[in-house]
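Re-running the complex after MR caught last week's input typo. The corrected sequence lines follow. Everything else is unchanged.
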Amino acid sequence: MSMIFGVPIAVLSGQLLLGLINGAFYALLSLGLAVIFGLLKIINFAHGAFYMLGALCTVVLFNTLGVNYWVALILAPLIVGVLGVLIEFFLLRKIANEDHIYSLLLTFGLALVIQGVLTNIYGVSGLRYPIPEVFRGGVNLGFMFLPYYRAWVIVAALVVCIGTWFMIEKTKLGSYLRAGTENSQLMQAFGINVPLLVSLTYGFGVMLAAFAGVLAAPIYSVTPVMGANILIIVFAVVVIGGMGSILGAVITGLAMGIIEGLTKVFYPEASSTVIFLVMVLVLLVRPSGLFGKEA
Amino acid sequence: MTDSIKPNYEQLKVTDLHAFYGESHILHGIDLLVRRGELVTLLGRNGSGRSTTLKSIMNMVGRRTGSIMINGRETIDSPAHHIAHLGVGYCPEERGIFSSLNVEENLLLPPTVRSDGMSLDEIYSMFPNLYERRYSQGTRLSGGEQQMLAMARILRTGANLLLLDEITEGLAPVIVQKLAEVLIKLKEKGLTIVLVEQNFRFAAPLADRHYLMEHGQIVEEIQANELASKQELLNTYLGV
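Corrected-run output:
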């Protein structure tokens, strides 16, 4: 068997693939966080809960109504997104002019409430969701075995990330978002309905998290605490990439997944810490993050 | 423009306007009236409340009471994003050019509020520099170009009441001259303009009337033809 650095290629590429998949989830989640932080200046601690809701929604829709994967891929983010808009409208808006710590605490509290209630109902043992029929099996690439569903996750996540980047950087709606991030008061004076823009942006960021949740449902164990586990890593990713940077969130997300994967090959003991190590290093050298604007 | 062809339509009528930032009471009962096609200035020292008056009209201050009629509509209870749609264009003192948008995106950002705004072509022929630099980052422009951009941006929307805050501040004389030409053109087009200005020599030949402000109040209204006779008074209030 061919080796690289004393490691079989199959093992290396297998871990790279796993890393890339984790990275895809980091990218989707930190992208949503970055979009929300950009316009609302809210550090959305409920983001993990929305990710979990996306996954749970998929499972519950399937078990109760027999809703298939493809419908869930649209429906679950929509349902969770609407919930996000309601939360913005009825809760976050009330404290929009207060110190940021209030919204941080509010979203953190919300996450705990959602997580707690659902743990009561569904327990923490993990619900199962079957991989959709078309994605069963995989293909042998010669140097590794590539399950179809994992390939799909990477493709879908990349498409959504690139689509989001395009929408924000290249469209008229995106120019509203970018300008609102800089000076929302002036946007109001130009006649743009900023409160609506804020609601929709929060809803969109939440939808991205829920979309990641749907993608995760067939491969990760779906539990009410799955969001809390991943959120800490995603925050580290956001800090490394630079708060509020769209492109930074996506690239850093993927890169951190890969770094994590590689660490599993060469020094498995450090694999769960390596991202935080990178975070410390980045904070020492570039406090505003790799892609953040220097203050 | 002579009085015979000037319609007496009241484009902006402010009555007993009080404005507050938190606990601070900034404006103490402002009354002002601007008729269609007029160019009116707000003169006064820094901190006399001129910029706050414009901001209050745009509903950008903490709290305001009194009455602000724009095109015959009461706006004291209107949300901020409704004001522009009555045909108001606001150019803030700090210019408000967005750094994450290029020049053309900055130009196209404010939604059209009336149908007869200037087209992109007309704007580029009025401000050729903006055309040359249309793909540059907005804040990479020189101060003068940024000011042109901030003006051009609201001309495209079709706003017929322009609130311009210190547009000549910190600019080279040649740019100030260019801005004066632009204002004259806009006046010929029949636009109504409220100008907050520090540079009295810039404002004097352009304006129909002046309101003199001090301590959040209007202390004097001066017609263009009274300037010479009230020079003494102006000197006292402006400290020039």
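None of the earlier attempt is carried over here. The mean pLDDT of chain A is 90. The beta strands of chain A are 3-4, 7-8, 138-140, 145-147.
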